[in-house]
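Weekend entry, working from home. Most of the wet-lab plans are on hold until the incubator is repaired, so I used the time to fold the two sequences that have been sitting in the queue since the last round of cloning. Logging both here for the record. First:
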Amino acid sequence: MANEALGIAVPRLSLVTDRSAAVRKVSVLGRGRRFAQLMGIARKNGLLPIRTLDFSTAPSGAAKRLVQAEGLRRALEEAGGAFVKMGQLMSTRTDALPEEFVSALSQLQHSVTPAPWQDVETLLVAEFGAPLESLFSSFDREPVAAASIGQVHRATLKSGRVVAVKVQRPGIVPEVRRDVDIALRMVNALSLSSPQARALGIKAAAAQYGADLIRQLDFRLEARNLMALRALQTRCARSGELRLPELVEALSTDRVILMEFLEGDTFASLNERTDAAPAELTAAMRVILSAFVRQIVFDGVYHADLHPGNIMLLADGQPALVDFGSVGRLDLQLREAVQELLIAFLQSDTQLIADGLLALAPLRDGADERGFRRDLSVFITFELGPGARVDVTTVDALVAILVQYSLAVPAEFIAAARALAVLEGTLRSTLPEFDLLEEARALAAGQIRDQMAPANLREIGTTELLALLPSIRRLPRRFDQIGLALETGKLNVNVRLLADRRDRRLLSHRRE
């Protein structure tokens, strides 16, 4: 490359370097000091005692909630790090949080104070191993976006290409690890003292998001996620509908990631405007939902954090996705199970849906299969029927049934369902009348038709034949072995009686 010819050491994506290994465990003393600081922030913003926080929707408490919600937003922003991320997560809980809290917390998606430029420049020079002037013809000191983990600057490479430079906040790694530890302790205390918080399922949500936040500290993960999504996007039938920025791989590291700069507005900013055209937003949302369905059901790689700040509407009306730190994955077996469940859902067949879930996670011996099918049928009828709304509580209700009957459903499956709930929160805040289930049903049917195209069928057939080849090549040898066993009288046949638990249960009932 040109930069290498100038003698500049250009960093590349690599799995060898792992600076996170050098981060020490959170010290008790450091955690204690931080906890005291957070208590001071909470007290200053009127959040103590915790039990006085009002998470109800009673009209009489609206004025009080408005003050508390604004105090919570200020406190989370001042606390920074993991606490801002926690607030962003809760801002999508429009199904459970009062409107005052949702409105205040949604401001965290685009109003985080940026890190000082001097510190940012020092980090960038250390990562690139060269002054910024040697790589960029211009570099905006003021970020176009700032979040709790990183911030994005607009810059122009020497080649004239305009790029978005996402840089990690200096010193953020040990801070986030410490804050996640403290946040989980505080959320546990809140859950114990507030029945409303327990009803929200805030403890489980915080634990899941804390683990995901730790993973997002390494920008190499985001780079790999973006490359995977782009590779799969190019293979779909309507690849041009959705825009994903192109990665500048040669200048990306574990603390800095460069990608194509996209001109447009986030849905978070559009939600605050009154001049946004509903028809344009609806069309964009259909594209986003269609892409999400395809990513979950067929690609197995999906954007798991589609809150309003991560979805853009470009100047030409094309929707785009940004921020690829949280991307989920489903293996082939799970994708096949999801496809069977989708087909059953499109056919409104509750028994087939139950069959699909049981194939994914069989019941234990002695479990009440009839009861499970009955409860699941009731859930589907009321929670996924016409006019229903899918949100985080819908996922929680399904999980409750699975737990009740001790079904060990893979965590990846539940994570995908929660990602859908996050997208539903974005849809509800942007287009309240958008019917997610009906739209998803129509889009899923279209995705299945796309998969039945001749080119896709040929690819599927080729893949299946390749999988069968090893078995086909072993057939002649196996026939020889069977023939030799017959000739010598050594052929044995093993039969496992009552191997199926339903057969054992039938025998038990007959005995009674």
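Second, folded right after the first finished:
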Amino acid sequence: MNSLAETVRQLAPHWGVMFVAMLSALAVAERVVAAVPLWGSLLVVLVVAVGYPPVVRVLGVAPDVWER
């Protein structure tokens, strides 16, 4: 069982990368569509948030707490 501090230490870099990926995806969406509505922005964020963990697992860089 991992302590809370160890879990946060493992996940913090992934949270940062996911945050940057969300901002990048939103910036691309704003360039493609002049004005992205709120629901569109939420959809982009949801796709990145749900899609990030499986991609990281496939790439083999998932933290141990995600491998349970």
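Plan for Monday: verify the second prediction. Residues 50 and 67 are 16 Å apart (CA to CA).
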